[in-house]
């Protein structure tokens, strides 16, 4: 049985970061249309990421010797929630900042740390994560992309699918098979760092239902990797990925994904002479979900700050968080259509439509709802 | 230190407040032996300042004790008595002996008669705090006309006094009484939901059908995962309502706690009964002691439907005009 998440206090030192972030965002986000802001951590803007890096806010938790901020998970929580609540376009550096950087720091060689971490912190290089394949989505252990050892390194052969930002990232950290067969499941998998500019790699972008394109198919045809391409221990890729997913699932991005829309709707209600009682109730209901949810997410950060890897708790908070993120557009869609005689702001409707279209993906990426609930069930002592 | 209090109360309730005791209290509408144990333990003054002879435990420490009240389905207003005695000590009023409960509302008629409908624990309390303005009153139940609610097993009652009875105690001090009741009930609900989750997990692992424990079926697992999420969220919302120093009640966080507990309870009760099947709705099986309470408590001191629009109105009126800054301001705890 997993323990209840204990209430955690945000340290004053982390809280102190907040005013500077707000001031920066007031400037950097000025004039950006709401329906673009609603893309938030799916919005890719390399210039924005570099401007953040100049503030020292990319790689905030990485050690200062690599150009990082040397701060703990609480600082990252403050930074992340301010960025996400405002809809800052953080997608370019987000994966490297959240996952790839910490992964390389934890498992990488000194040479890998020296090479990659300073560039990540400067937002000079961006990362994507190669996990899913055509025949392995949720059943990730069945993946078939293979790195075969040769005298002078590795040869990579295979295909990744649904790789966010592969068309814009410089590197991919891919989970691939380095020994055995797909029947060996979790054994024989390794994580390799792939320079996406290498010969033999082709990337095909896949458009999404909202008109954006962030997914990709990535093909590896006899791609020559250097001998030191493996990050961490060869054959230990599965355990490393599990630890990495705790980073991916535990952040506040699983809470604030629809907050730009929620705030825009509240602003619309503020313009009405008398907001309908049903809308007040809906606003209150959603806030009553958000307040404890944010605190649960903070409790996860406290665990990360202590060096724990709260895999099960992260799954629990992520599932609850994506429910909340999906409830916002679905309930607001109904609320905004409650009186067809009323004129409604076009920008609000456009923002709503975008979030409504894309929100099914919230409970797919980083582990589907059904998989996460299985993880939670195991943590509860079932099976 | 706070953990010692919780361990000690947990042991006391484990020994003296088992399901048989709860059933007997519901049947007889009395729990004198249990009350005597609790009174002798000193827990009633856990929140009273040390200078006034109490243990000086803040609400933050009391949170664990109030969880236990729900976890053990204590058939007495233990949490309200603890909180009210601390309030009385703070405003310099000597607390009368006996169990104190809190009326959600009161009507005073032109002839001076007082009526309180649906008062939680009124069947087993000795005094009820009636939230009148400018002064709240502590009225003796011995002098009240007490009508049972007619709900099976309920300890609620409707109360009426023809006039202000002899022995009435005036209680100064501006306090959000309804929110206090909401906070205490929300935390008890979280405790009861934790118990329901644990027993449902145990049942799912024990009960076999189709040749394996039902907890191995994905359909059941998915439901239990949702149940755990709701319990964790309700507990966190409850704890958030108790972070202020002393016995300060934070109006918005208390409202959130009660609203969130109510939403959670709806799902938790439904899933618990679904997983248990027919045995879960029998009188002899303990699950109903907790699920009946959760359903009743959902409505006490305002249901989610009462609190949601009030929370929404505050959010809309927030000078920050954005949800996160408003949330952070509400989260900041007041310290004395």
By CATH, the architecture of the largest domain in chain A is named Up-down Bundle
How many DSSP-defined strands of chain B?
A: 10
Largest sheet of chain B: 4 strands, mixed
Tell me the number of helical segments of chain B per DSSP (H or I, 4 or more residues long): 11
Mean pLDDT of chain A: 94
The greatest interface here is:
A-B, 49 and 50 residues
- According to CATH, the fold-level topology of the largest domain in chain A is Butyryl-CoA Dehydrogenase, subunit A, domain 3
Described by the principal axes of the CA atoms, the overall outline of chain B is: globular
CATH class of the largest domain in chain A: Mainly Alpha
Global outline of chain A: globular
Q: Which ranges of chain A are low-confidence, i.e. pLDDT below 50, for 5 or more consecutive residues?
A: none
Strand content of chain B: 5-15%
Query: How do the SSEs of chain B run, as a string of H and E?
Result: HHHHHEEEEEEEEHEEHHHHH
Explain what this protein looks like in three dimensions:
The complex is a heterodimer of chains A (383) and B (336). Chain A has 383 residues and is of the alpha+beta class. Chain A has 13 helices and 8 strands. In chain A, the strands form 2 sheets. A 4-stranded mixed beta sheet of chain A has the order 1-4-5-8, covered by helices on one side. A 4-stranded antiparallel beta sheet of chain A has the order 2-3-7-6, with no helix packed on it. In chain A, a hairpin with a 2-residue loop joins strand 2 and strand 3 (153-161). In chain A, helix 9 (259-271) packs parallel to helix 11. The radius of gyration of chain A is 21 Å and the shape is globular. In chain B, strands 1-4-5-8 form a 4-stranded mixed beta sheet. Chain B has 11 helices and 10 strands. Chain B is α+β, with helices and mostly antiparallel strands and 336 residues long. Helices cover 52% and strands 11% of the residues of chain B. Chain B is globular and about 65 Å long. The model of chain B has no long low-confidence stretch (mean pLDDT 96). In chain B, a hairpin with a 5-residue loop joins strand 2 (107-108) and strand 3. The chains are: A alpha+beta (383), B alpha+beta (336). At the A-B interface, helix 5, helix 9, helix 10, helix 11 and helix 13 of A face helix 6, helix 7, helix 8, helix 10 and helix 11 of B.
